[in-house]
Fold:
Amino acid sequence: MSEPVLVVGPGAIGLSLTAGLRRAGVPVALLGRDAAAERRLARSGFTVTSPDGSSERISGLAGARGLKAPASAAFFCVKSGDARKAAAAARRLIGPETPVVALQNGIGHEKVFRRAFGPRRTVIGVCYFAADRSEPGSLKLNGGEDILLARRPGNEKALEAARALLTRAGFRVHLKDSEEGMLWTKAAFNAAVNPLGAACAVESGRIEADPALRELALAALGEAASAAAASGHALDYPDMAGKLMLSCRNAPRQRNSMLQDLSAGRRTEAGAILGPLLLAAKRRKVPAPTLELLSAVISRLERRLAKR
Structure:
């Protein structure tokens, strides 16, 4: 592999991919929102702490702004709301045969990437692992190693290239026949845990262990599943509640992405996660009081941050 793999968005997910790829000897170039921060990270690398407490230094990175040729593959790890800007920023580095893998929470970004790069090159996926980037040079892995990738007509070559790279990087890759089911399932899980953990400033383990928080999470999950089902979106797992509680137990110290965003003074991706579920509930007249409450709380916290 002569040209590096491009990782767009060096946050918790992006750096988790970067760490796995570099361990496997794959060259990686990072594309961040800020050019100076991108150069610093590429020059200095970052420290990864595993769930067992061991740590290692990841180095040998490149800044994407210095690349002269298209990347061998591109992984987009930005928020759903940043998909258009990220696609535009990376366009010159996406060659005619470059596989493009989009790993976002929420629903709607998949159309952005297919419009930008075409359905043949584009693979939509979701991550089921826990990682926390508390500061630019530090990443903490809190459990899990699963990535789901969706088949679509014509994307077989890009899908196989993405699967091979992620497997080489140490992830468990699962291929899904329904992109829609994959995205709505992940949105339902995120809707149950992320806004609640962010609003209460608690790690995932507390949501499972505390009876009141667990009840709220399961109520939100039930509303999300009902809204999805009423709209014709079949979810992947029959026991969604069991899966949700297991994920919280398996990563008890995880600060979910919304909590990380609020703690860092950033806007969250609540709109991309809760928005489609609330719209589906409204259209199908499915009651969703817990989701509505959580959405209102996160919106208020974001407005308060914006005033600082």
Remarks:
- Residues 133 and 281 are 33 Å apart (CA to CA).
- The mean pLDDT is 96.
